[in-house]
Amino acid sequence: MRGAPTRTGSALAAGLAAALLAGSPTAGAEPAAPLASEIVSRQWCKSVGDRLFSVSTSFCERSRLRPSPSTSIEGRALMRLEQPPRLPRRSASIDADTRAPRIMMIGGIHGDELTSVSIVFRWMERLERPDASELHWLVIPLANPDGMLSSPARRVNARGVDLNRNFDTPDWSEQAMNHWIARARRDPRRFPGEAPVSEPETRWLQQEIARFRPDVIVSIHAPYGVLDFDGPAEEPKRFGRLRLNRLGVYPGSLGNYGGIHKGVPVITIELPHATRMPSLRDQEAIWQDMIKWIRQNFVPVNLG
Questions:
Q1: Residue 252: phi, psi to the nearest 5?
Q2: Is the confidence at residue 29, as pLDDT, over 80?
Q3: pTM (2 decimals)?
């Protein structure tokens, strides 16, 4: 992994605005090339590729990642890739539900967990495989770009808020601040914010959950080297070398918001290291076990 210089929020916002203006042709003019979203995507991919040795800038540019309408505190694009199922669903019954399971995969909620971003890019390369391409994917490789692209990378966003303590859970108002004071001992890396969903990154993730309506959320973190699980569905026992070890429920966490409040299963993959990638064999084993668990729990038998 390597560092990259960061730009000020105003400069980033100005650059994004310029890209959008460049991609908006006047009446009767030839369409601008490339489109504004492609310009933003290329700039974003270069920033990420410059920071992470393990992320190929060229693959990032080819991956169909596109900017959402939302941006981070410092004006960086919040990127997403939505890939509908590529293979036709096979149904044994006319009345069978042929809706493909929807999988939402999120990396980089904590900006200093660099491997959580890199491994999502590695797994994006596998989405064309038959066992994955029949699923409907929404992939967000970097939910906290300001945190990761700061120097040094940091867990919190540009406003100093831990995004994984800022989701709008029912217990936030009563417990989030008390938990931060009493349990986290005012650790600034775990500050939950002044109010629930106060941050644009958290707000955008909640909006994406509401829009996409996932059947399961896969959230990648580091460095505890375990699996965590919240919500309905049968819990996985292990993905590769990672074994289930419930870490508890925190006010404002994604597991609390999705798994308990919204009833969407949330599987948290905690990689063993924040800056050192698992071996290629371990990456593949985690992926294979994850796909197997998804198929067993969310793909109806008569559609498999």
A1: 80, 5
A2: no
A3: 0.86
